[in-house]
Write a structure and sequence with these properties.
The complex is a heterodimer of chains A (495) and B (131). Chain A has 495 residues and is α+β, with helices and mostly antiparallel strands. Chain A contains 15 helices and 17 strands. Chain B is built from 5 helices and 5 strands; from the N terminus they run E-H-E-H-E-H-E-H-E-H. Classes of the chains: A alpha+beta (495), B alpha/beta (131). Chains A and B meet through helix 9 of A and helix 1 of B.
């Protein structure tokens, strides 16, 4: 008996012991069983073992358990039991069947060791693992994920990586990440990226990658280095989001912004022209009208015949002048709206020769020295009529505003500026223009800078309008009483 | 006290000058001192006579659109010159422009007394010289 007691004591200490009959009805429980299950022995004996069932395990598990022990074998496993107060405890369980002569179990001894603490950790681990798999699922659904080792060799890619890059995971794994490099970034860029992640820092940025079929896609990229105990990265996880659509929209916005700026510039220049026209109408059209009105008023008030005649003859020139201004304006407006200019090859020597014919008498009268040098650019591609008109106006100015003190020298040149520009220049040693005073005005309509009877102020305005229509630039250098030089820069179409 | 006022006309429009001359003849209180066809000539005259108040005009009728030196450029120089004159000179900008830009710009200049839109009538001229 003593031996039996000792034996029982030894088992009782760490273990929960119960004995059930062949149907699972408890016939014996030890103290530890009562302590853990919080039931008294009286409450337990005569009850099915299921009184402790926490409902955690599947029916299959119990079926397997019963099958094992009914078969005469011991069952080992971990069970979660429920105490009387509802608390749960995990127990390392061994159920040993006691067999009769027929090798049939007639009772079962259940020996359990409480393992709640250990099991809790495992469950927590399992739960964390499950949560992690959820995260992974969520990430895989939304992001392009790849893992590379520290040499940059791809060791893992998710499905989205494959669908986006159009490579299979077999094609990607074992490859360098450069397989999707679109060649958009410099070596320095990637050097910086690597130095960031190799030093253990997270790299973030937008990358343009190339799929297998050559199509390009944009990804918002975060590369996270995983560090070992020595804080050295042993692998890198790259999480990317496809932002190709956003990039496209951004590019569109950029383009429309650029267009908007261009339109604004056109509008501003149109607005400046409008202001110019407003000023033209206010000054250049209204002035002669005012004169006519004043002349007519005077006529009405004067009865003296000779005075009337004196005034009458003044009316017609003003009307003619008004007509001139009108015609000039219409022509200028036409130039501005003439967008379909026919461009053709122009032999500058031929063109200038035709222009000079018109000035033959004037040039001979003042014995002007006309020097021509078109050797650098003898042929240009432009609008014949405008080039003719530009030369005519500029040469006419040199003759009109020549100095009375010296022989007029006119130099007409063409030269190349850069690869795709040609410049025409007309210079003289005439009266010149005070550009300090007139800088902003020299190309405006009806601005005259000399007290010359033929100065109409139209030539340079028209020239500027024509140069503008050709998409060129015009500017002048001049010094009073030394001379002027006008430059016209045009697009040079190399043939 | 002088019974007449001296007027300097700065305008390149021959018709306007011709008709203004005719009107001045009828408005007895004004004496046409001189006429300049551009701002520079007028400015040179004023510089020349700046120390001689008697030879300077009491009224200047100034056009805006002129060759060589226009009305605005004249005024720029004139404002610098004005403190030197030993007398009060009244400047009327007299232009055919009805643009509010021109009118406001002219009125913003202290030395400009008023902006007169052409055409001017003899009555307007009388009004201008009554001060």
């Amino acid at each position: 008996m003593m031996g039996e007691t000792n034996h029982k004591y030894a088992i009782d200490q760490p273990s929960i012991v119960a004995v059930t009959d062949e149907k699972g009805i408890i016939t014996y429980v030890n103290d530890h069983f009562c302590e853990i299950s919080k039931y008294t022995a009286e409450e337990l004996i005569g009850q099915d073992h299921r009184i402790l069932n926490s409902g955690y395990h599947s029916k299959e598990l119990f079926a397997e358990l019963w099958a094992t022990i009914n078969n005469g074998s011991a069952w080992k496993g971990e069970l979660r039991n429920k105490a009387k107060d509802g608390t749960l405890y995990w127990a390392d369980t061994t159920i040993v069947p006691f067999l009769n002569k027929d090798q049939k179990p007639y009772q079962f001894a259940t020996i359990q060791t409480v393992i709640s603490g250990r099991k809790k950790g495992q469950v927590a681990h399992k739960e964390t693992f499950e949560e992690l798999s959820h995260y992974k699922y969520a990430l895989d659904q939304s992001a392009i994920v790849a893992i590379t080792n520290k040499s940059g060799i791809i060791t893992y890619v998710n499905e989205k990586f494959c669908t986006t890059s159009k490579y299979s995971s077999e094609e990607l794994i074992g490859q360098d990440h450069r397989i999707i490099n679109s060649g958009y970034y410099s070596k320095v860029f990637f050097k910086k990226l690597w130095s960031t992640i190799l030093s253990g820092n997270v790299w973030k940025g937008e990358l343009r990658n190339k799929a297998k079929d050559g199509s390009l896609y944009w990804v918002d990229t975060t590369i996270i280095p995983f560090l070992d105990k020595k804080n050295q990265p042993y692998q890198f996880v790259a999480i990317r989001f496809d932002i190709t659509k956003r990039k496209k929209v951004e590019a569109q916005i950029k383009l429309s912004n650029k267009k908007a700026i261009q339109y604004t510039q056109v509008l501003e220049s149109k607005n400046a022209q409008l202001v110019d026209f407003c000023s033209i109408i206010s000054h250049n059209l209204r002035a002669p009208l005012t004169s006519i009105l004043m002349l007519v008023d005077y006529l009405e008030q004067t009865k003296n015949k000779s005075e009337r005649n004196e005034v009458l003859v003044k009316i017609k020139p003003v009307v003619n002048h008004l007509l001139d201004v009108f015609n000039d304006l219409v022509e200028a407006i036409q130039i501005q709206y003439d967008t379909n200019l026919v461009l053709e090859k122009i032999d500058l020597n031929d063109c200038l020769k035709k222009v000079l014919v018109g000035f033959d008498t004037q040039i001979q009268d003042c014995r002007a020295d006309v020097q021509i040098d078109f050797t650098q650019a003898p042929v240009i591609t432009s609008h014949q009529k405008y080039i003719h008109s530009i030369f005519t106006n500029l040469i006419s100015n040199t003759l009109k505003y020549k100095s009375p003190n010296r022989k007029l020298i006119i130099i007409i040149r063409s030269f190349l500026k850069g690869k795709n520009k040609v410049v025409l220049s007309v210079s003289d040693n005439g009266l010149g223009i005070d550009l300090v005073l007139h800088k902003e005005q020299i190309f405006k309509i009806r601005k005259t800078f000399h007290k010359h009877p033929e100065a109409k102020g139209l030539g340079l305005f028209m020239t500027k309008t024509q140069v503008d229509a050709l998409g060129g630039k015009i500017w002048a250098e001049s010094q009073p009483n030394k001379g002027s030089i006008f430059f016209i820069e045009l697009k040079h179409i190399n043939t | 006290m002088n019974s007449y006022k001296k007027l300097t006309l700065v305008d390149d429009d021959e018709i306007f000058v011709f008709l203004t001359k005719k009107m001045i003849e009828q408005v007895k209180v004004i004496h046409l001192l001189n006429v300049f066809g551009n701002g520079l000539d007028a400015l040179n005259f004023l510089r020349d006579k700046k120390n001689d108040a008697d030879l300077l005009p009491e009224i200047i009728l100034l056009d805006l659109s002129m060759p060589v030196l226009n009305g605005w450029q004249f005024l720029e120089e004139y404002t610098k010159l004005y403190p030197i004159f030993g007398k009060k000179i009244i400047v009327y900008v007299c232009s055919s422009s009805i643009s509010s830009t021109d009118i406001n710009r002219a009125k913003s200049i202290n030395e400009v007394s008023d902006y007169v839109i052409k055409p001017i009538t003899i009555d307007k001229l009388r009004e201008l010289v009554k001060f």
